[in-house]
TrEMBL record:
The gene is nrdJ. Residues 740-842 form the TSCPD domain. Its cofactor is adenosylcob(III)alamin. This is Vitamin B12-dependent ribonucleotide reductase. InterPro entries: RdRp_reductase_class-2, RNR_2_N, RNR_lg_C, RNR_NrdJ/NrdZ, TSCPD_dom. Catalyzes the reduction of ribonucleotides to deoxyribonucleotides. May function to provide a pool of deoxyribonucleotide precursors for DNA repair during oxygen limitation and/or for immediate growth after restoration of oxygen. Residues 711-724 have a biased composition (Basic and acidic residues). Residues 50-140 form the Ribonucleotide reductase class II vitamin B12-dependent N-terminal domain.
């Protein structure tokens, strides 16, 4: 018997002692379980082998055979839970081997703590609580955040929180302590944030008469510490947030810090250094281990709106030491964000207007992902509900069972604070005194699609708002009930009026929701009832928790729950990458799509044809029988019909009034977005009442490696010899002029009805040397611009700029006219530039180079399809218990995990493999997904809130 088994047996013995009824405590009724039947006895269990390989060289980096999981759990969930959450050394008797052991380790610890601290009215209530919690975890209805699975019930400190906020003062001892506390938190695999605005600026004097260093200088030491700990192989990489107030005299230096470093990265990259994310030379660049955010006030944003002056204030006495133009300063914020995605923005007055504890102190900072905002030196433990589990067969949301689930989860989360350990004593004291919780959800995007709601629509936003209001209203109502049983939080008395005021603000926002359909009206009715009870019970008992809800990234735990979408995010893409029993993987169409089509009234024959079209093209545009007015339901974060940046902001604004904290989300913007577009996003976020906002513009960072960008030299002797014999590089480029008489090809084209001509001139060896474009009437502005553009491209080609450099830059550029073309090899173009450079690639690049860019002729794509049919059976063994026949028929697996590119008589020129949905999307659409590679297994990650998550091993880039 293992140590874990001994502990669990002891817990069951204590449970069977039948403690007498206390006469006071929670009365818990069964909702999901059956009396006399343990939840484990209601599911079918099976043994599986978990073998994780490195896709680059095929080596095994993890192996555990014979693990036990429910048959309904996917292989992906099995792999991630086994590798991430099972405790004990692999290969020893102490290693956990079954999901039962994992759930028992956590649930029995929570239940025992609930008994000891008087949460349950009787032993029977405690047993029902244990069974209900077990059932919901077993059936993937919710999950605690990762630290719970890492630590609870083990010999390690019982740390349950993923989110921490620190504090630093204008003293050297405090600054050095900041370094120490961050290190302790990073060591445990969690993240922390803090506000540096108390540190005096470099424009102020020290008591000794010298000039202060300023907060940015101290950021260097903290950044180096975080990078060192990250490189040391913690559970997750270090994640941190650094905030500075907009009125700090050093704010301009802070704003431009990461943008300057990004310029340095580009210069070093161009000089030949390895500056990829995780590259050996990237460590020489500073400030790369933190997210930076500027904290703006209403006063500043009004000054921006009015074009007025704004004062930067000394830290010691608050006096204005410099006056700047607010609009110019705001422009610097947005320009830096446009250049490198930092800084994000936090809206200080909005944050503190919804603060339940202002008598204790202000909210100055957030955790690294910006969803937890509370007092300095505090922490928050998180849990997220799987919304798709509450979608009934008739397409309506199950508000009744959702309320019961929230009650149980919020109770368990509060119990955890009773036994939890904390990295520092100040954090422990604040957390135990204010008991901040962070219940949230995942799978919102899948739920909206399944019910026929477009993500960026009034109906979708109304339903999301109603569900979020129901969740937080129920959580606070249960918190008020807990206050009547085990007492309100210690800091409640001094903040009672403020806390009640915020509860009324939430309730008023709920009353302001205007339902669009019957489904959101029903959910809203249930939410209104919860807020009424919350206010009534809270007026009598107070509340147990200062905060109740956040919307976290839900990266790794989203995979544990087999969620299609994370947090508040829309679906990433319509095509998915599914792992199979026995190894291998295959492409399927997201199974939310057929459900959505049924809710929209389509017949099964139509659904089958639409799904087959999506499997081949990766989008719904021109899908057979699909009405154009329904296209928006299937809009995703990436792909042909990507949701607009403002669509993401509007969804955040719809749910923000019903969240205690904030929302972890990055608004992705296309590479063509302008600084003015970023200004609009940040300004509208303030007007719409968001608490925080961050953007990411495609390709704005060098250190975001794209698949296929390396490895073009396969290491053959001929290439090595050619490289060795190449002449030394000249100190400056030399123009190689075309001969007086040269071969040229003129191509006529039409993009969305706009016609034009392209003439490509070539050297004697057939390589491209000039391009001339004719578009628009002679003498028009457009014709002149195209002439100038043609000359610029031609001169660059003659000076040695590779054609593929231009193809990488100009393909996928989006602007009108865009749409159908008359070219059979390029049926749809996102712009004239997209078409022109795709055509040039097809005409002038060899297939191996085009393969790396994802550009193929119609004939080559047909060969890929034929090759996939011929190899899919041998690539992966599909077992019926993993993928049923209906799913296979609906998914139309045209491409398997391994897609073989053009085959020559000498063999394949290259092989492109998909290892995640992000890479699969690239293969299907021929576009690049701007995301980092996983630091653990090398697979391309995909966005999850303001972080990235790896579908291969479950690793995250932040604090989900």
């Amino acid at each position: 018997m293992t140590e874990t088994d001994d502990r669990l047996a002891g817990a069951r013995t204590r449970r069977s002692a039948k403690a007498p009824s206390r006469g006071k405590g929670l009365k818990i009724k069964r909702v999901f379980t059956t009396a006399g039947v343990h939840p484990y006895d209601e599911v079918t269990w099976e043994r599986r082998d978990v073998v994780m390989t490195n896709w680059r060289d095929g080596s095994i980096n993890f192996e555990q055979r014979g693990v036990e999981f429910p048959a309904e759990w996917s292989i992906n969930a099995t792999n991630i839970v086994t590798t991430k959450y099972f405790r004990g050394a692999v290969g020893t008797s102490q290693r956990e081997t079954s999901l039962r052991q994992l759930i028992d380790r956590v649930v029995l610890t929570y239940t025992e703590a609930g008994r000891e601290h008087g949460y349950f009215g009787s032993e029977g209530d405690a047993e029902i609580f244990e069974h209900e919690l077990t059932w919901m975890l077993l059936h993937q209805y919710f999950s605690f955040n990762s630290p719970v699975w890492f630590n609870v019930g083990t010999s390690a400190p019982q740390q349950v929180s993923a989110c921490f906020i620190l504090a630093v003062d204008d003293e050297m001892d405090s600054i050095l302590n900041w370094y120490r506390e961050e290190g302790l938190i990073f060591k445990g695999g969690s993240g922390a944030g803090l506000n540096l605005s108390r540190i005096r600026s470099s424009k102020e004097l020290l008591s000794s008469g010298g000039t202060a260093s300023g907060p940015v200088s101290f950021m260097r030491g903290a950044d180096a510490s975080a990078g060192t700990i990250k490189s040391g192989g913690a559970t997750r990489r270090a994640a941190k947030m650094v905030v500075l107030d907009i009125d700090h005299p050093d704010v301009e230096e802070f704003i431009e810090t990461k943008a300057r470093e990004e310029n340095k990265i580009r210069a070093l990259r161009d000089a030949g250094y390895d500056m990829d994310l995780g590259g050996k030379d990237i460590t020489s660049v500073q400030y790369q281990n933190a997210n930076n955010s500027v904290r703006v006030s209403d006063e500043f944003m009004r000054a921006v709106d009015e074009g007025a002056a704004f004062g930067l204030r000394a830290r010691l006495d608050g006096s204005v030491i410099e006056t700047v133009d607010a609009k110019t300063l705001f422009r610097k914020v947005t320009q830096a964000a446009w250049e490198c995605a930092d800084p994000g923005i936090q809206y200080d007055d909005t944050i503190n207007d919804w603060h339940t504890n202002p008598e204790t102190g202000r909210i100055n900072a957030s955790n690294p992902c910006s969803e937890y905002m509370s007092l300095d030196n505090s922490s928050c433990n998180l849990a997220s509900l799987n919304l798709m589990k509450f979608l009934k067969d008739d397409g309506t949301f199950d508000s009744k069972n959702f309320v019961k689930a929230v009650e149980l989860v919020i109770t368990a989360m509060d119990i955890s604070i009773c036994f939890a350990d904390f990295p520092t004593e100040p954090i422990g004291e604040t957390t135990r005194a204010y008991r901040q919780l962070g219940i949230g959800y995942a799978n919102l995007g899948a739920l909206l699609m399944a019910t026929g709601h477009a993500y960026d629509s009034r109906g979708g936003q109304s339903l999301a708002a109603a569900i979020t209001s129901l969740m937080t209203g129920t959580a606070y109502r249960r918190s008020a009930e807990l206050a009547g049983i085990v007492g309100a939080y210690e800091g409640f008395a001094r903040n009672a009026d403020a806390h009640a005021r915020v509860m009324r603000k939430h309730a008023a926002a709920n009353d302001a929701i205007r339902p669009v359909g019957a489904d959101d009206a029903d959910v809203l009715k249930a939410a209104t009832a919860q807020w009424q009870e919350c206010l009534e019970i809270g007026a009598e008992n107070g509340w147990r928790n200062a905060q109740a809800s956040v919307l976290a990234p839900t990266g790794t735990i989203g995979f544990m729950m087999d969620c299609d979408t994370t947090g508040i995010e829309p679906d990433f893409s319509l095509v998915k990458f599914k792992k199979l029993v026995g190894g291998g993987s295959m492409q399927i169409v997201n199974q939310t799509v057929p459900r959505a089509l049924r809710s929209l009234g389509y017949q099964e024959e139509q659904i089958e044809a639409i799904v087959e079209y999506i499997a081949e093209h990766g989008h719904v545009v021109d899908a057979p029988t699909l009405r154009p007015e329904h296209y928006e339901v299937f809009d995703c974060a990436m792909g042909e019909r990507a949701i607009s940046p403002m669509g993401h902001v509007r969804m955040m604004a719809a749910v923000q009034p019903f969240i205690s904290g904030a929302i972890s989300k990055t608004v992705n913007m296309p590479e063509s977005a302008t600084i003015e577009d970023v200004e609009k996003i940040y300004f509208e976020g303030w007007k719409l009442g968001l608490k925080a906002l961050a953007i990411y513009r495609d390709n704005c960072k060098v250190g975001q490696p794209l698949s296929g960008g390396k490895g073009k030299n396969d290491g053959t002797k001929d290439e090595a010899k050619a490289e060795a014999e190449a002449p030394a590089a000249l100190s400056h480029p030399v123009r190689k002029r075309l001969p007086k008489k040269r071969t040229s090809v003129t191509t006529s084209f039409s993009v969305a009805g706009a016609e034009g001509y392209m003439t490509a001139g070539m050297y004697e060896d057939g390589s491209l040397g000039e391009v001339f474009l004719k578009l628009g009437k002679q003498g028009s502005t457009l014709a002149g611009v195209m002439d100038a553009f043609s000359i610029g491209i031609s001169l660059a080609l003659q000076h040695g700029v590779p054609l593929e450099t231009y193809i990488q830059k100009f393909t996928n550029m989006r602007f009108e006219p865009a749409g159908m073309t008359d070219d059979p090899d390029i049926r749809i173009a996102q712009s004239v530039m997209d078409y022109i450079f795709r055509r040039l690639a097809l005409d002038h690049l060899p297939v191996e180079k085009r393969a790396g860019l994802g550009i193929f002729t119609a004939e080559e794509r047909a060969a890929q399809v034929a090759g996939s049919y011929g190899t899919s059976a041998s690539t992966a063994t599909v077992q019926e218990d993993e993928v049923d026949l209906e799913q296979l028929r609906g998914s139309a697996p045209i491409e398997a995990a391994k897609l073989q590119e053009k085959v020559t008589p000498d063999g394949p020129t290259s092989v492109k493999e998909a290892h995640s949905s992000a890479e699969l999307l690239e293969l299907v659409t021929g576009t690049a997904t701007d995301a980092p590679l996983c630091m653990t297994c090398g697979t391309k990650m995909r966005p999850a809130g303001s972080c990235y998550v790896c579908e291969g091993c479950g690793s995250t880039s932040g604090c989900s």
